[in-house]
Amino acid sequence: MGGDLAPEATVEGAALAARDFGIEVVLVGDRRVVERELARNHAAILPITIVHASEVVSMSEEPVEAVLAKPNSSLHVGYEMLKRGEGDAFLSAGNSGATAMAAMVILGNLAGVDRPAMALPVPSGRDHALLIDGGINVEVKAFNLVEFAVMGTAYARHVSGIIRPRVGILSDGAEGFNGNDLTRSAAVTLRAMAPDINYIGNITGRDINRGTADVVVTDGFSGNIVLKIMEGFGSFMARELREFLGAGLRGKLAYLLVHKRVSALQQRLDTSELGGAPLLGVNGVAMIAHGSSNARTIRNAIRTSAGEALVRQVNTEIVELMCKIPPGARPAIRPAGERIGALFNLLRERLVRMEAAPSK
Amino acid sequence: MGGDLAPEATVEGAALAARDFGIEVVLVGDRRVVERELARNHAAILPITIVHASEVVSMSEEPVEAVLAKPNSSLHVGYEMLKRGEGDAFLSAGNSGATAMAAMVILGNLAGVDRPAMALPVPSGRDHALLIDGGINVEVKAFNLVEFAVMGTAYARHVSGIIRPRVGILSDGAEGFNGNDLTRSAAVTLRAMAPDINYIGNITGRDINRGTADVVVTDGFSGNIVLKIMEGFGSFMARELREFLGAGLRGKLAYLLVHKRVSALQQRLDTSELGGAPLLGVNGVAMIAHGSSNARTIRNAIRTSAGEALVRQVNTEIVELMCKIPPGARPAIRPAGERIGALFNLLRERLVRMEAAPSK
């Protein structure tokens, strides 16, 4: 029932997944509505069943409130089924805050996990990098950045098949003088986790699309900004491209010459082809699809959700890696060195002089 | 002396500004080097003078250390001149952290300002929006976001000529359930400042390039990420564009048809045409140019720096607007040397961070 184009796109996507990949799909929602849509998709012979849920969480509802006040929502019913083992994965294109909240409340967190996080593929180099957290945790502690690195590593290793995924922390510059308290503290812990975590250091916004790292660790506030800028800048560029490939005779002719390449680029930028973002750190496979998902995106997201490696290996690996986080690891504070001491003296002199100077 | 392409690009840019706009330029740096470059540019008849500075702050130096330890650097000498009234504006393409730090130490902050910030133009809609802070203040308080809104408003009003600049706070979604403690608290203050500040609410990363707001307020950590993603994504797209407009006969033919439009787009995306980012909130006109600035960028930055409105009106407006921030929104009033105290805190934070940083 969730998503801007639901129920049409979700049901059609389910039918496509069942038809193309033979995946068994359970549709949780208003039975009457879902049946009508299934009929429209000639899905009678497909391995699709319906489980009725009488309530719907809308896109604008406050997540906590929605989860607590609507025990019969499709979200609730779906996660309860997953918890009872009546399914391998649960996918929703609805209110992502509520989806994450319901997963945490109903499935619970994996052992050792403090904050589950959303991992999103972003275009990078010739392939994709995983950005985690994609917007669930707006305020985080340093430990959370560490667990995001752990969860991203497990996913990249088993789902993307990268043996030693390169993990970078998104910051405002190379390590040393840059970063904030959180990134600096998380870096110390991640460095101590070698070789379990292949931490490569800070990366900047410029590096995300360069293929510098396989896993880009950040808090949910910055993560959301990153994703939305890419979306916004991407459509800004697409608009511009359409404008000069399409206007006038020259533009139209140019378009005819290169339209296949333009489509290929658009497809590579369109992460919806990869289908959905996992909510990592919960006790089960919870998948979140973009609110604007069309049928094809839903189809792909169902394929990703049902992936053998995701269903069987990722969570086990997360729990194992979480155990390897050094207990209470914190940056060691070194005693003030000579350089710092000299600097303090210079600074004091300067300040004394400024205070003595007549104010303007 | 500062910038990746200095001294060639800076001196040539100065010669261009003097020639094209008749601006009087004082070049601060190694006299011998500057004279050689001026000779190369046939600048003898131009209104350019040289002031010698024996030291140079390099791009890799830690800002505090550089500012404190090199009293004869071109940065120091330049700002001291500005403070004595021997110039209207100071521009540097060097180490931006050191440039900002030197401005704060030597010029001091404007009355009421806690944290000066860098305002950067970003492509938006048919024009540009101003992103503030562009990376100077990595850790901020809610009050700082408010003063960034004030400073951005003053600049957009007088330099860009927008009478009621629309101010948005960069966040992870519309107001209500989104944002963090800082953005929510700053929003309350900004709303109370109507009509002096035209606060339009939260905006997301998606809105930055859409022309939704004229002033985009954010902390320096997120601001840096935003700018670098745009840079990175921009060159990613440029690479892709080059690849399909240039490969094979079809691509080359398409390029011939639309290359003028491609150049126009690139020029619009290239904010270096606007020339430099002001460091707002200091007692003077301090302008920061991108480290990779070429001669044309320097020329344009000099024109911006010397703009009548910037030199005469922006700082006055900032001080006036700062007075209108509701007293409750201000951090606790500090004793007599308030300005010095704030600076001391800033420097101390920086030093603590240096101690925590791994030694290289």
Helices and strands in order:
2 copies of one chain form a homodimer.
Chain A: H1 8-21, E1 25-29, H2 31-40, E2 48-52, H3 63-69, H4 74-83, E3 90-92, H5 96-106, E4 117-124, E5 127-132, H6 142-158, E6 166-170, H7 181-192, E7 198-203, E8 215-217, H8 220-244, H9 248-269, E9 277-280, E10 286-288, H10 295-305, H11 308-323, H12 338-356
Parallel strand pairs in A: 1-2, 3-10, 5-8, 6-7, 6-8
Antiparallel strand pairs in A: 4-5, 4-9, 9-10
Helix pairs in contact in A: 1-10, 3-5, 4-5, 6-7, 6-11, 8-9
Strand content of chain A: 5-15%
Alpha-carbon Rg of chain A, integer:
24 Å
Shape of chain A: globular
- Continuous helix count of chain A: 12
CATH architecture of chain A: 3-Layer(aba) Sandwich
Q: Name the CATH superfamily assignment of chain A.
A: Isopropylmalate Dehydrogenase
Structural class of chain A: alpha/beta
SSE ordering of chain A: HEHEHHEHEEHEHEEHHEEHHH
Q: How many structural domains in the coordinates of chain A? A: 1
Specify the oligomeric state: homodimer
Uncertain ranges of chain A: 330-341
Sheet with most strands of chain A: 8 strands, mixed
Distance between the termini of chain A: 65 Å
